[in-house]
Amino acid sequence: MSNQILKGKKGIIFGALDEKSIAWKTALRCHKEGAQLVLTNAPVALRMGEINKLAEEVQAPVIGADVTNMDDLKKLFEESMKHFGGGVDFVLHSIGMSLNVRKGKHYTEMDYGFNQKTLDISAMSLHRVLRTAWDLDAINDWGSVVALTYIAAQRVFPDYNEMADAKALLESVTRSFGYHYGVRKKVRVNTISQSPTRTTAGSGVKGFDGFINYAEKMSPLGNASAEDCANYIAMMFSDMSRMVTMQNLFHDGGFSYTGVTGDVIAQMEK
């Protein structure tokens, strides 16, 4: 069902890789709600993924951009504004990559060169995106920016490795830049802290299958699906959330505020 809550709005979706990704499902939901879109990802991801299939379905151009390259981001926003005939109303930042995880480096033995790249791609890329939009005055008044994060920014999940640090930095950028963008243009900037989700990227975390089952038992409503997250993001892009900014919004079926559940106790007592 569609309520057309994004009718007339225009937005950029970062990070749609394949049908499992939250960004992919968000693009579908936003299109269904009446939005016009531009899709973007890193050049290597465009070659690996299936974004052209999504682009056809949501009738959106694909503009490649390396989020660590300011020239690429400038070109992305300029071409998007040209395509839309004006500014954008929303941006989804669904970007994360850990070189130390990819290389099998334990958190206590991380390569700091890899770590710098991880932080740049997974966290400071949000600052670069917002800075580029700020310089070009690319986001319309009362626009909305959402970045995806995870509760490992607040709590220890040993195998989440350096991505926990990256997400903590991402959330800090959200608050800090969110203040300035709110004062200047009433643009709101928030993070959504999603349940563990079976995306291509998420499944690469060590012990993921065991943890997703644990999170399911620890969440009164169960884990939130990628489709559920897409629905929430669409609402955050709509005018129904126009006074919400600088927040980290947990979308995890209650996991974040649950100490223990009956299911977990029963499992431990077996």
Summarize the topology.
Elements: E1 10-14, H1 22-32, E2 36-40, H2 43-48, H3 51-58, H4 70-84, E3 88-93, H5 99-102, H6 112-136, E4 139-149, H7 163-185, E5 188-194, H8 208-218, H9 226-237, E6 248-251, H10 262-268
Parallel strand pairs: 1-2, 1-3, 3-4, 4-5, 5-6
**Could you give the order of strands across the largest sheet?**
2-1-3-4-5-6
- Quickly give the CATH architecture: 3-Layer(aba) Sandwich
CATH topology: Rossmann fold
- Please give the domain count: 1
Shape estimate: globular
**Share of helical residues:** 40-55%
> Roughly how many Å apart are the termini?
43 Å
CATH class: Alpha Beta
Corresponding CATH superfamily? NAD(P)-binding Rossmann-like Domain
* Unreliable spans: none
Order of H and E elements: EHEHHHEHHEHEHHEH
Cα-atom radius of gyration? 18 Å
In terms of structural class, how would the helical and strand content be classed? alpha/beta
Mean pLDDT: 95
Largest sheet: 6 strands, parallel
Amount of beta strand: 5-15%
Total E-strand runs = 6
- Total helical segments: 10
